[in-house]
């Protein structure tokens, strides 16, 4: 659940709701701006109190609560000084953020997701410049390794890599080259990098990254198209290190009947995949529609903003009626 969708006024109630529905794992994003509003400052007391309270409530309900350290949103103070476009700046402040969170929450939670969809973060920072895009990816690879160094030995460390079948947008040579570049980034850079410790970024020399190899406890992949889940899981298993695998479906917006069909196909594909690989977790995202939803066509959750379970949610959770 992205940090922006966490309702702080009722999150303990939401955890009780999840527990009643049989949910065993919940992942939420940490709001870096709220927790650390200034560089070098300690974590904000109210923010720490909220997250520790959430972790305690989750544990009492038998739920593994996991925290994501980096989503697309970053503090203004971090980006104003270059953010992940400036390696020296980013790799100074990022490990300190990870260390602060580990000290505050490491004994209370069920797992860490250090970086949510790193390719998506790079795309949002420099979408139209392949050279600078490669620079940001290189920094994010090192940031992942640095997070591993801080967090290893504590709660499980889980990846969240967005994977999909990459196809050219048209038949031109340029489109084919762009598709090949994106395929290499989606697959070889992250999954193979964790396997052999080599950062392979198109347009740059391959770089060995010390301590990158093996730097996760669970290989988590995120997919958008439920019809592709079986093939994507098999490809991920072939290209990465031997670790348990977790998969999350980004739910499609629109009518819930279509979402229910997507969930049914997703569950069918993951059930088949589980017969041949160590698939330990099957999840969907997001859980709720946003509280400020205006257009019903943008609804994505398996629960309404009023916490009513939809048919897609019943399908996912195996609830009749």
Notes on the protein architecture:
This protein has 321 residues and is α/β, with parallel strands linked by helices. It has a domain of 158 residues: Alpha-Beta Barrel (TIM Barrel), CATH 3.20.20.80. The protein contains eleven helices and nine strands. A four-stranded parallel beta sheet has the order 4-7-8-9. Strands 1-2-3 form a three-stranded parallel beta sheet, covered by helices on one side. It has a two-stranded antiparallel sheet with strand order 5-6. Helix 1 packs parallel to helix 3, helix 6 packs across helix 7 and helix 9 packs across helix 10.
In a few lines, what is going on in this structure?
The protein is α/β, with parallel strands linked by helices. 45% of the residues lie in helices and 12% in strands.
Itemize the secondary structure elements and their pairings.
Blueprint: H1 11-20, E1 25-29, H2 32-35, H3 45-60, E2 64-68, H4 76-80, H5 87-105, E3 111-113, H6 118-125, H7 130-151, E4 161-162, H8 173-196, E5 198-199, E6 207-208, E7 219-223, H9 229-239, E8 245-250, H10 256-274, E9 279-285, H11 311-317
Parallel strand pairs: 1-2, 2-3, 4-7, 7-8, 8-9
Antiparallel strand pairs: 5-6
